[in-house]
Amino acid sequence: MVKKAELAYSNGEYLKAVELYEQLAEGEESKYIKSSYQFIIAECYRHLNDSKKAEIAYKKIAKQKSSKEKMATYWYGYYLLKSEKYDEAEKCFKAYKKSTPRDHRGANGIESCSLAVAYKEKPTRYVVENIKALNTKYNDFGPMYSDNNFDAIYFTSSRIEEGVKPQINQVSGMNYTDIYEARYDRKGKWQAPEKILDSTVNCEFDDGNVSISSDGFTMYFTRCLQELGKNLGCQIYTNTYRNGAWHSTQLVEIVPDSISIGQPAISPDGLTLYFSSRMKGGHGGSDIWKVERASENGMWGRPVNLGASINTEGDEMFPYVRQDGTLYFASDGLPGMGGLDIFRAVKNDDGKWTVVNMQYPINSSQDDFGIVFQGNKEIGLLTSNRKGTRGLEDIYSFELPELKLAVEGTMIDVSINKPIVEGDVTLIGSDGSLQTAKTKQDGTYLFKLEQYVDYIIIGSFDGFLKKKVKISTANISDDTTFSQNLDLITMSKPVEIPNIYYDAGKWTLNDASKAALEQLGKLLEDNPNITIELGAHTDMVGDANVNLQLSKRRAQAVVDYLAQKGYDVDRLVAQGYGESKPVVVTEEIAKLDSAFVVGMELSQEFLEKQPREVREKANQINRRTELRILSTDYIPKPEYFMRQKNNSRKGK
Fold first, then answer.
1. Residue of 43, 44, 392, 478 with fewest CB within 10 Å of its CB?
2. pLDDT at residue number 649
3. What's the burial of 638, exposed, middle or buried (CB within 10 Å: 0-12/13-18/19+)?
4. Which of the two residues, 312 and 636, has the higher pLDDT score?
5. Using CA atoms in the order 573, 578, 579, 583, what is the torsion angle rounded to 10 degrees?
6. Other residues' Cβ atoms within 10 Å of the Cβ of residue 504
């Protein structure tokens, strides 16, 4: 029985092997030998993809003092993670990392326990749904669009056909897999899948994991032949479509027959073939490899491993190449949510891969793999055995809904804090787009935006300075509506510059004032033809002459600061008014106290009649720095245009 069990396991006949080893373990008295049997039983359940039984089996070994304890601890943590028992899983991964520090899977497992929670709490916008019309209680996986119409797919299934006696595969424990075809009907619903009857495509053993060339006429697929007592493994085959049928299945000669390879993915140009294999020269379990050829009729070159950026000590499987060259694959060795996760890989300019987890809900705590897209659209299919799966593995659809991006706001006359009706708003996009609108009766405007675009919003109205603001949707991944008011400054009267502060009796600008003057500088940039007066006003406290000198120094401090920032002093005039021009109460100011009446001055005569609280409010209002437009025909100096050019290069 031991010899039979060992032979079955070495040949990959895990269903047969687990039955034999369970019998052996049950009757074994030696703890050491029994422990070795139990570990092989756990390994069989792992290869059979029976997570529940594998978790229980590895738990037994992890608690024993044996040579397999370390590896069993890792795999026990692996299945605890898949069961979303994160605290227990993290303990196992930490123990494994301590005992086997060179294996990155320990550290990656620890990170996965945190990532799984984070990804679930903040899902991406993808919508993932089970396609019930395609799935059975068996394994249904590996969908692939048959052509660029995206109305038909091929996929792999272990379903049992009605009236056909099932042939159980001792490797997988399931019925042998075949390739099926499914199509949309006129109403956009999936019709019942049909098995491809062509014997050149489906044989009596496992066939599946299809990849189709860009023109739709060449199929690449995996076939796993079996022979009693031998471990033949799997190879990649091609088939050609002509005259309405598939013909001429041929072996793709990449590696010797003794090496098992599968899960092909042909590149859009047909010159690179990616696949998965455990061949020597890899990084651990299954790795992603590639072969290349000079032309579609040329010979394939030597296999090349995609390297440590893609491959790990774990399994990397089910590659897929999108039309833009982006590589997708599944891995259980990289940090993820548990089991196999789907990853996206893009090559940088230096030829190195940048690998990103597709996160939840594309990924789950279970196995997620075999993703395909409808061309450049964020729509497609994938395979998963997550909660809610109808069978053992099901085909799911996914779609990224169109991102809803917009900008809205109100155009405001800042001198009276009221909306401007029929104001002009222009939206200029870095993609060359141009939109214009008039503000409504309440002064509001609204524009729809596109993703990955930088925008400039320009607000203008007769008698007012233009206002420019910038927004960008480059890093936006959720539905977003920007709120951007357009505060316009009138050219007909002085307007207070908010947030300009000085210490009592001093004229030195503090940090808060400098931040406010950055906005004033932007106003000068946006309106290069204006000259302005900067007028400083004081309250009524103290000597009038002292206040006059103080206000002059404060106004000059503002001009000096702007000059230091590179703005032309010919455009700036400093004027100190002291306490000579008290504020005239507006509707906004009247809301601050019942003593303030619209149209009245906050003069010395008024203040003398008011209680202390009212005087303090009035003094605070009178202390201000105002902007007044002097002219609109200034001709900018060359330095202005150089500064604009430099800012444009920096993306400001």
1. 478
2. 58
3. exposed
4. 312
5. 20
6. 6
Residue 583 token pair: 């504020």
Q: 48 Cβ partners below 8 Å, 6+ apart? A: 14, 15, 18, 172, 173
Whole-number Å distance between alpha carbons of 30 and 2: 14
Tokens of 341: 């996760």
pLDDT of residue 230: 65
Calculate the alpha carbon distances from 563 to 348, 522, 534, 569, 635 in Å.
Answer: 43, 13, 13, 6, 17
Q: Does the structure show a pLDDT above 80 at 284? A: yes
Residue 493 to residue 416: CA distance in whole angstroms: 11
Q: What percentage of the chain has pLDDT greater than the value 70?
A: 98
Long-range Cβ pairs for the range 187-196 (8 Å, 24+)? 189/133, 190/131, 190/133, 190/134, 191/133, 192/133, 193/134, 193/155, 193/157, 195/161, 196/154, 196/246
**Residue of higher predicted confidence among 407 and 187:** 407
Q: Which residues contact 29 (CB under 8 A, 6 or more apart)?
A: none
The Cα–Cα gap between 86 and 393 comes to 23
Burial annotation 291-306 (CB, 10 A radius, 16+ → b, else e): beeeeeeeebeebebb
- Token pair for residue 569? 């002093």
Q: CB-hemisphere CA count at 13 Å for 42? A: 24
Token code pair at residue 73: 């601890």
The partner residues of 134 in beta bridges, in order of sequence, read: none
Per-residue tokens: 389: 């799966």
> DSSP secondary-structure letter at 490?
B
Are 143 and 393 in contact by the 8 Å Cβ rule? The answer is: no
Q: Report the C-alpha gap between 435 and 424 in whole angstroms.
A: 11
Query: How far apart, in whole angstroms, are the C-alpha atoms of residue 552 and residue 531?
Result: 18
Average pLDDT across the chain, whole number: 91
| Percent with pLDDT over 90 in the chain | 69
Residues 324-342 pLDDT 10s: 999 999 999 999 999 999 9
Answer for the pair 625, 558: CB distance below 8 angstroms, yes or no.
Answer: yes
User: Six-digit token pair at 303?
Assistant: 């296999």
* Residue 138 pLDDT greater than 60, yes or no: yes
Residue 304 near residue 289 (C-beta atoms within 8 A): yes
Cis peptide before 264 (omega within 30 of 0): no
Task: Work out the angle between the directed axes of helices 14-27 and 2-10 (0-180°, nearest 10).
Answer: 150
CA distance 523 to 530: 10
pLDDT tens track for 10-32: 888 888 999 999 999 998 888 88
Q: What is the pLDDT of residue 427?
A: 97
Distance of alpha carbon 134 from alpha carbon 383, whole angstroms: 12
Alpha carbons within 13 A on the beta-carbon side of 415: 17
For the chain, give the number of residues.
Answer: 652
Residue 558 host element (H or E) = helix 544-564
Can you read off the two tokens belonging to residue 334?
């990289």
228 versus 630: the higher-pLDDT residue is 630
DSSP state of 258: T
Among 375, 625, 408, residue whose Cα is nearest residue 510: 625
Sign of the torsion formed by the C-alpha atoms of 629, 632, 633 and 639: positive
